[in-house]
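ugh finaly. both done.
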Amino acid sequence: MDTEGVEGVLHAGGTPIVTITGCVIVAIRDDLDDQSVMHLQDELVEEVARRGARGVIIDISALEIVDTFAGRMIGSMAQMARMMNARTILVGMRPAVAMTLVELGMTLVGVETALNADKAMNLIVNDLPPVALAQ
């Protein structure tokens, strides 16, 4: 495994939180229960503070469906990271998840999206303007 640029790996309840080149990256698993999501949120915010991260990439490609709790937690993670001056980009959103979030009325205000983690990392590292920003 190439570890160039990897600054740290933390496991929050079995979910790895990886910091690479000033970006905290976390992949949300489909099997997380509500308690695990809350623990992950706490650990993510701690890692942003500990590393002084410029960005947070939340990968939700493993989620086939999303409920209101998970949607609120994703929004909360993004808002907390923004308050700590870290740009947040959501990646890997499936069409069904996007449709469900809209149907639930969850716009995830201020959360940027990208097709994948590479594109998100490029936006953060090169300080490029947002591609898609929920209003």
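ok and the 2nd:
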Amino acid sequence: MAQSLRLAGGIAAAERAGLVARLSALDDQLARYPAEAVELELSVEARGTRGQRLTLECSISGMVRMVAASAEWDLRAALMRVREGMRRQLDDAATRREPRNDRHLRRSVLDSDGSSHRRALAGQGVLRCPVGPSGSAGRPSHRSSR
């Protein structure tokens, strides 16, 4: 994370070590992606005033840019708020990309070649639905024949 962090307006280079230490909690979420694909930018507007705004932007190639911002007047509190906001966004992005055990999401996710994940699973035999003796999908008939 340290090598991909760029400090923009309002933040001095001397503050970098402290900021990297506080943002290191994002390392676990960012470890999912190649280091060269991740760009982080931290900036502050109107520093030291009531209108102060801290912004953390994250760009990962192939994904939508994520932005977390805080209007806290205390820079440390603002940094923690943007860190947690970015952490949530990275977790949400990972869930959308890697739905794991959520069947509903797996059906709607598209593979990189545009084919649906559902078709890929069906090709592996995961989504087979056996037809029972009554013609229903996997359920025996509860009606008695007359």
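summary for the 2nd one i guess: The chain is about 35% helix and 15% strand.
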